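for the writeup, i need someone to sanity check this before i put it in the appendix. the sequnce is what the collaborator sent (i think, or maybe the updated version? ugh). structure was predicted straight from it, no edits. if anything looks off just tell me and ill rerun, i have time this weekend
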Amino acid sequence: MAVRANNTTDRLLADSFKELAQIKPVEKITIKEITDKVGVIRPTFYNHFQDKYELLEWIIRTEVLEPTYPLIHNGLANQALLLIFTCMEHEKPFYSRISRMDGPITFEELVAKCIKEFFVRIIKEAQIKDLELFPFVTEEVLAEYYAKSMIFSVKIWIQQGMNVPPQKMADLYEYLMNHSLEDILHGV
């Protein structure tokens, strides 16, 4: 899905979905319930989103990932990570619930897709020269690697009740990404 401008109807539908997701499983939320809460008809929803999973992708992209772009672009990766964990902690009931999605699309699949697309964009803009050493590692493969490690960290954090403060999670993730297993095993 292409990232489109944030508009009022998108925001209203997202807020409605987020409220419903806090009280019932995502798989059981209907488009009618989402639109009834907003006071629009079902076709309005389909003018904005294909289904509730695309709406969820929009939420993750616009509320969690896109705000980090200027930070990442300016070399502030730890601040970007802090913002991600803080945004999710701020909406703990919502993210706790969606992390247990068990329908045709899982939380890991959906969020990894969003993160991968975001990382592909960042990697392409960075024009990484080191990839030339490993021609079999494409921008997409590299983005998927980092997306999967990120979603793993996020999922564990959510499943454990988000009890670790966002700054500690950001520091931990940055540490793990900047150190090899050998470094960690030997206390480097």
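The CA atoms of residues 64 and 87 lie 6 Å apart. The chain has eleven helices and no strands.
thx in advance!!
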